[in-house]
Design brief:
- With 75 residues, the chain is an alpha+beta fold.
- It is 31% helix and 35% strand.
- The chain contains two helices and four strands.
- The radius of gyration is 11 Å and the shape is globular.
- The two termini are 18 Å apart.
- The relative contact order is 0.26.
Length: 75
């Protein structure tokens, strides 16, 4: 999937992956996509709730080899 910005949030504990994603999204324009890679076990639920609360679209959430990869479209 095509993305505009990539954010490496590996080895960061909650709430840092969310805070970094929020900052990245605030610098993007509507419709752009950020790809976030995180290792925090709580990240899947955190990003689901974050997107629900902010109106950003969680396009995908997958786990690969102990890493969580999220694709989020800016509202």
């Amino acid at each position: 999937m095509k993305f505009d910005v990539e954010l490496d949030a590996r080895q960061l504990a909650c709430p840092l992956p969310i805070l970094r994603a929020k900052k990245a999204l605030s610098q993007m324009v509507s419709g752009q996509v950020v790809r976030v890679v995180a290792t925090d076990k709580g990240a899947p639920l955190d990003f689901l709730v974050f997107c629900d609360n902010t109106g950003n679209e969680l396009l995908s959430s997958v786990e690969q080899e102990g890493e969580f990869i999220f694709m989020i479209r800016r509202r």
